[in-house]
Design brief:
two-stranded antiparallel ribbon, single chain, 4% strand
């Protein structure tokens, strides 16, 4: 229950001890929730920073495995090893880019 302090209604009402304790308890609960959320955020950021080198290494390994698989696939198709290791693009037989196969002196 609120009481008005002596001296008139111009001053802020004084809260009873029970009301003050309730407000303090609610503030403590809110503070505890905020501390827990802050702890989770810090832990999540730490874990992400800790895992970053492992994720980068896994990505590098996946790229290497894909490159090796492509080289092996090209070698099975008959491409020489020194060319299969390069980042070349194969064009299927019978398909030519427009303008290919013409000499410089032939009109289009």
């Amino acid at each position: 229950m609120s009481r008005t302090p002596p001296g008139g209604p111009s001053l802020a009402p004084v809260l009873s001890l029970d009301e003050q304790m309730g407000r303090v308890a609610a503030a403590c609960r809110n503070l505890a929730c905020e501390v827990v959320l802050l702890g989770l955020a810090v832990q999540s950021a730490w874990f992400e920073a800790w895992m970053q080198p492992f994720l980068a290494a896994a990505e590098t390994q996946a790229v290497g495995l894909a490159r090796r698989a492509r080289r092996d696939r090209l070698m099975r198709r008959g491409v020489p090893a020194h060319l299969a290791g390069e980042a070349l693009r194969l064009v299927p037989r019978g398909s030519r880019p427009e303008g290919a196969g013409r000499g410089a002196d032939q009109p289009p």
